[in-house]
Amino acid sequence: MIIIPAIDIHLGKCVMLTQGKIEKETIYSNDPVFMAKMWQSKGAKRIHIVDLDGAFRGTPQHVDCIAQIRKSFIGIIQLGGGIRDEKAISHFIELGIDKLILGTLMVYNPELTRKTIKKYGDKIIGAVDITDGKIAIGGWKEITETNAVDFAKKLKDNGMKEIIVTDVTKDGTLEGANIEEIGNIARTSGLSVFASGGIGSLEDVKKVKEIEKDGVAGVIIGKALYNESVKFEDLLKI
Predict the structure, then answer these.
(1) I need a surface site. Which of 23, 64, 183, 219 has the fewest CB within 10 A?
(2) What is the domain partition of the chain in residue ranges?
(3) Domain 2-227 is classified in which CATH homologous superfamily?
(4) Is the pTM of this model over 0.90?
């Protein structure tokens, strides 16, 4: 199980939100590129970048910053936020981004999603963002009636290999991940799942590791690392 630091970008700064709400924002750095270098120096092999402005507006907003991070970070970069058409997908693939995270696009355009998975294979990751078991889209502003478990199964049928499961209500709260839902989606879908949302302590990470056998391949951590509720070095020991 791998540990993946998160770098969320809003207005050019590295921030963390609570439950996806911009009014509950904490700024941790004015330089996301520096943060990527820092996580690399601490031993991170993979980082999770979200273009928050892109998620809210529907198109990527921090392309230059992301390009700079790509030049600076040696490991795997997974990127999400506003990637909703073929142009954005092909641009970031050409830029050298290892894995693109699709969310809203998968709900609104399943046909393009299928074509994208067929073309790019394991470079595509699905964002299964949930509120009370339902899929949230559009920067988490819209809650659909789509069941998360059924949705994950369809992604597997379409050739998806990895998904990120985030409980929106837990994200940024430091109250622990939704272990039950994450484990259930991993078991029933047969996909490699990355747990996200709510991690606040070493104990929270240990609880995620207990469901590694169900198909949980890693955990994405943001706020807890930035406010040092947990230290990256200690996580690597687990």
Answers:
(1) 23
(2) 2-227
(3) Aldolase class I (3.20.20.70)
(4) yes
